[in-house]
Amino acid sequence: MLNKKFLTMGFITTAAALSLLYSTSLFATTPQKPTNEESRLQALAKFTKVLGIVEQYNVDDVTLQELIDKSLQGLMTNLDAHSTFLNKKSFDSLKVQTDGEFGGLGITVGMKDGALTVIAPIEGTPADKAGLKAEDIILKINNKSTLNMTIDDAVNLMRGKVGTPIDITIVRKNEAKPLHVHIIRGNIKIQSVYTKQISDNILYIRVTSFDKKVVEGVKKAINKFKNKDKGIVLDLRNNPGGLLDQAVGLVDLFVDKGPIVSQKGRTESENKVYSATSSATITHMPMVVLINGGSASASEIVTGALQDHKRAVVVGKKSFGKGSVQVILPISEDEAIKLTIARYYLPSGRTIQAVGVTPDIQVEAGEVKTEDNEFMIKEADLKKHLEKELQKDSGKAVTKDTEKEPKDQIITTEQLHKDLQLKEAVDIIKALIITQG
Q1: pLDDT number for residue 383
Q2: Active site residue 133
């Protein structure tokens, strides 16, 4: 009712203003550009007029409130892939995700080249155990096409009661047909930091996501082996990101001065620079950082900052390219908008958004396959190609083709030889230890 009243009053005010403008223009000798306020009124008048026409003549009966919600959704999703309007159902779902326990798959998703894409499965979750991989394109969720689906709608479809099943159809690079994945939803409990030893003097640290315990966990591991180890391999592969303060804090453990990341938005209040402090730095050991297409957001900030400061050698494949800042802004008790307010910039001034971080040394994961196949396509052809796959979908079931990394404290030579990226990282660290030691 309040919305309707506001819109009606706005229309009357706008109509009066337009009438005044038209009357004035009859006597004007020189056309004048409308002021900013007049332009706003004209735009609001156009919007209100279209709402009225649709409400009156649309073939289906649609209420004004429904039209407003659809308009807001269209407005937000057309700004960028991460902005959205959260109605009561979506807003409640977000609150459950951040404040309570929920059932899910354990994957982070994003929009890449217009397609719903897995950024990374979280280690140990149902999605990880079912064999989903970074850069898998989600074609269907429970037989519902994801084309033109928002990220939030997709997340809401995948989330559900613990123990309930869900079927995902994916398109994977170098696979001839779409793959069907059957997953049972579970509670998502994440261990964010794993540490192991490689050889006698290399500390391997794997960070799977940036929760509130990352800096504490990494700091504890480094201090424990500080007198033994001479080099560090920081593995951020398939790390979808998380808390900004943890990313900044992690870099601060290795860099003693200079900017780590800056945040720049439209308003000056959103502009911030996060810098390193010498008091937080605990080691200057040579480092290698491992990344891939599943490394996003906070993990890209860490990688890019260490690379710009020439503090680490980056090995692997180009990262995902998620370098924007979103905030949740309530517009009522039950509704809100998620809006992109800023972008992150690395110490050198370069952006992450839609670009990612390029490794110093690019290394494929496992065997390198070079043969052509029908999924080696240009970005411009992606949507058309996915539409074709929806029509001919007769995919096979996916199986986990790699064993989970054991949780013991030592990475053996045999395990090392199964991971080409990690082996390259270890070879580089050994060389750095010799040259810098």
Answers
A1: 64
A2: no
